[in-house]
Amino acid sequence: MSSWIPVCGYQALLPERGVCALVDGRQVAVFRTYDGTVHAIDNLDPFSGAQVLSRGIVGTRRGEPTVASPLHKQVFSLVSGECLDEPGFAVPVYPIRVDGGLVQVGMGV
Amino acid sequence: MNRIVVVGYGPTAHRLVETLYERGFDGRVTVIGEEPRPAYDRVALTSYLSGISVEDLTYPVPPGTVTRLGGRVTGIDREARTVTLADGSAEPYDVLVLATGSAPFVPPVPGAEHAYVYRTIDDLDAIRMAAKDATEGVVVGGGLLGLEAADALRGLGLKTHIVEMSPWLMPRQVDEGGGSVLKGHIEALGLSVHAGAGVQEIVAGERGVTGLRKPDGTLLDAQIVVFSAGIRPRDELARTSGLDVGERGGITVDAGMRTSDPAIYAIGECALAGGMVYGLVGPCFTMAEVAADRILGGAATFDGADLSTKLKLLGVEVAQFGAMDGALDVTYMDPVAGVYKRLFISDDAKTLLGGICVGDASPYSALRPFVGKPLPAAPSDLLFSGSGAELDLPDDAQVCSCNNVSAGTVRTAIADKALTDVPGIKACTRAGTTCGSCVPMLKQLLEKSGVEVSKALCEHFTYSRAELYDIVKVRGITTFSELISAHGEGRGCDICKPAVASILASLHNGHVLDGERAALQDTNDAFLANIQKNGTYSVVPRIPGGEITPDKLIVIGEVARDFGLYTKITGGQRIDLFGARVEQLPQIWRRLVDAGFESGHAYGKALRTVKSCVGSAWCRYGVQDSVGLAIDLELRYRGLRAPHKLKSAVSGCARECAEARSKDFGIIATEQGWNLYVGGNGGFKPRHADLLAADLSTEELIRTIDRFVMFYIRTADRLQRTAAWLESLDGGLDYLRQVIIDDSLGICAELDAQMEYHVATYVDEWQTTIDDPEKLGRFVSFVNAPGVPDPSIVFETERDQIKPVEVAAR
Predict the structure, then answer these.
(1) Any CB–CB contact under 8 A between A102 and chain B?
(2) Inter-chain contact A50–B459, Cβ cutoff 8 Å?
């Protein structure tokens, strides 16, 4: 079954900050970058095993939007989910869209 | 091959075991040591008498090692490959390593049985006991170890004589000229030197030793005699087992440290390598590493060793490197200052052969690597070259003789591992980790490495933190977006964003979570709490000066109990409450703020605590009110954002119970006022703070601290503590005094005004956060389920408190 699950209003997202949403029992980190684009990756930091990525600092690396784990600062691409500091590590990326002012995360779409 | 047995447990054995495990050996190593304790640092043995504990001197036992302490090996069955111990037990081996060391040589003179030796902790304990009833002592032996022993006797309060057979002291390290300068230094300390003298007998009566008679009949009064006249290899076990030993002692080994039995190695002072027995720690460590390599299948060889030494004995620097003679020599001697330096040079005046320094060994580090190589400068210049900054070392020049590390190895490590500091070089190459005399060379190699230590903060800014500070200040910039669009590129990262947030906070104060600034903060500043390993946070209310009323203590206890938090007393005299989820933080702080608590800024690069001792109000020794001052200072500087955290302490007297000299700024009370120390640090690289100004009035003190802190904020690098900042400051402490006391840059009025602005505009950021619904809204675990706690956070119980359940990472 696939569906788009609304998580919050777009206005609830602040530029370059993340929030965490509980979607189907999964913790999804949702970010809004400076240009207004939204991204969703898994909230689980694979290095520490803690659910914290939504609380990392959002930035860019060579133009690619990123978040740094707040625990040990490994940087992940918000586009691919790949860890840019330690190749071979990645977090799941989820489909995300803004529809009628609502931010929606896709599960199985 | 999985059972290695090592006989002997001194530093060499330790180095062997450490190297084996470091290189991945996964079998069992059993070390049998005669002494009742693991290996300890014999080079620093004398420090034991001045109060360093055995624990501090002891090397950590590498995990996996089986130790048999107080065990004496009586025989080796080479057929069965077992060693037998005095208690009748046996240890089977696949590989046996003899690291039995040496024994002090005690000449066969009448009364020798009354003498002490100077090698082990037990020897020192015995000497210390005997010294209690003694007023005079004699050390037989004027070499390196003899002078160590003489220093120890002097330290125990004895009038000390040194008897040396050779015509001058330290004959292995210095020539006659150096010996005479050395003698002058030592006699000036009150010791008597008897060079060119032997021992006839040790005179003892019913109540023990009364003196030492020289061959010419004169008697030196003494109640203690210590023999420190050379060493003899402990090769008796090898002899009785039929291994080859040298004519004059020492277990014969090949270049791979193997004895005449291929299953048995010998290393350290008991080994006869290339016809030599080595008594210095450097060559012994090299032997240990060669043996470890061979045991693990390698082909390393021990090809002799550099016997260069640099040491400080009885406060006198002595150094010797390379040859002690040559066709030509250049000598400098200043008997008044007590300095002697001599270089030996080849007959064509082109090659450096060696040198001797007494009283000033500063040329040693720079020159030793050039032995056997073309002279890097005119000899007279070399005698006075301090750091060696101007010299270019060839790659094969040995920089660290203790660990046999060449300049090339250090350069490669710097380049390959992108090292930027001396601790990094030490960790990678081991250079500088034993005696430390080559550390100045390491610094030079680093500086000349050509590795461009870029001042750029990160890929988004080509400026250093100090430059960004000036840009923000001069251009009146108030937001990150304004700064990065005009002076940087991209949208920042976890390096530049918190750094800029800190600059904006230092210059403009204001709430760290206001507007765009909220997105610049690390999670700690974003949630005004300290993140812990499982994603929960800890809370530290401010307890200024460590002073707290019972009522407030009770509130902290009640809050911790009601929210189920783990509590721990911090090193900064406050209380840390652990295990809070983000949505609990505002509730916790509502209770704390209502009880009169403020943020402790434990999460911020800001002032942490001003620790204090109990001071003159209660303490019978206190000369000033340290608690009162600590509270005033903590309230003055609370909330001030800085390049890194700032710690402080105030001690009410010279006993220094508040440990102020380990702080960024520490204050110690004097009869006349306050002494201000700056640039101290604990942590990874401890540093004692330096005295910046003495006997200040409270008003002068505060003004000086204001300027010190503000000047640091203005000029330090990102995450650079005051200790590193002060060391990197050109001109050091003197320059700092010129700037903040003499106002040499004319900025003091500005620094003062900035601090006044900070003090006037400070507000408690937790108070304002809980009063602001917009900020409070961010304190939720889930944006779509604000009331739901994070189910991934689970605790177990340990010692009646919560503890995070370990999760499998990666």
Answers:
(1) no
(2) no
Chain A with chain B: Cβ pairs closer than 8 A: 112
Domain that residue B491 falls in: 465-509
* B686 torsion bin: left (phi>0), alpha (psi -120 to 50), beta (else): beta
**Which residue, B465, B417, B410, is CA-closest to B439?**
B410
With an 8 Å Cβ cutoff, is A50 touching chain B? yes
Residue spans per domain, chain A = 3-107
E strands, B54-178, in order: 65-69, 73-77, 82-85, 90-92, 95-98, 102-104, 116-117, 136-140, 159-164
The C-alpha atoms of residue B225 and residue B228 are separated, in whole angstroms, by 10
Ramachandran bin of A101, using left for φ above 0, alpha for ψ from -120 to 50, beta for the remaining angles: left
Q: Rounded to whole angstroms, how far apart are CA atoms B502 and B510?
A: 11
**Mean pLDDT, range B125-149, rounded to an integer:** 92
Q: Does A19 touch chain B (CB under 8 A)?
A: yes
Tell me the C-alpha distance between B300 and B298, whole Å. 6
The answer, for A51 touching chain B at a CB cutoff of 8 Å, is yes
**Is the pLDDT confidence value at B393 over 80?**
no
Half-sphere exposure at residue B428, Cβ-oriented, CA atoms within 13 angstroms: 19
Q: Are B209 and B333 in a shared domain?
A: no
Chain B residues touching A33 at Cβ < 8 A: 491
Chain B, nearest residue to A88 by Cα: B810
Query: Is the same domain home to B253 and B202?
Result: no
Are B739 and B630 within one domain? yes
- The stretch B135-141 carries a mean pLDDT of 95
CA distance readout (Å), B300 to A82, B244, B254, B427:
43, 22, 11, 21
Cβ–Cβ below 8 Å for B522 and A48: no
Chain B, residues 754-783, CB within 8 A of chain A, namely 778, 780-783
pLDDT of B284 above 70 = yes
Same-domain status, B598 and B731: yes
Q: Does B520 touch chain A (CB under 8 A)?
A: yes
The CATH code of the domain that includes B323 is: 3.30.390.30
| CA B136, B141, B142, B143 torsion-angle sign | negative
Which residue is closest to A51 within chain B, CA to CA? B535
Asked if B223 and B359 sit in the same domain, the reply is: no
| Tens digit of each residue's pLDDT (9 = 90 or more) over B499-520 | 999 999 988 888 888 888 999 9
CB spacing of B783 vs A19 below 8 angstroms = yes
Which of B339, B355, B388 marks a domain boundary?
A: B388
- Nearest by CB to B790, which of A7, A51, A73? A51
Q: How many CA atoms lie within 13 A of B126 on its CB side?
A: 13
Is A64 part of the contact surface with chain B (CB cutoff 8 Å)?
no
B494/A59 touch (CB, cutoff 8 Å), yes or no: yes
- Of the partner residues B481, B522, B807, the one whose CB lies closest to the CB of residue A57: B522
CB B318 within 8 A of CB B170: yes
Contact A22 B782 (CB under 8 A): yes
pLDDT digits (tens, 9 = 90+) for B271-282: 999 999 998 888
Q: State whether B636 and B688 are in the same domain.
A: yes
Nearest to A47 among B491, B793, B809 (CB): B809
B208 and B291 together in one domain: no
Domain closes at, from B248, B273, B295: B295
Q: Are B583 and B685 members of one domain?
A: yes
Q: Choose from A8, A14, A16, A26 for mutation: most chain B CBs within 10 A.
A: A16
* Predicted complex ipTM: 0.95
Indicate whether B810 belongs to any domain. Answer: no
CATH code at A3-107: 2.102.10.10
pLDDT for residue B387 is more than 60: no
CA–CA gap between residue B436 and residue B37 (Å, rounded): 26
Better-predicted residue by pLDDT, B340 or B509: B340
Report how many domains make up chain B: 6
Residue B465 has pLDDT above 80, yes or no: yes
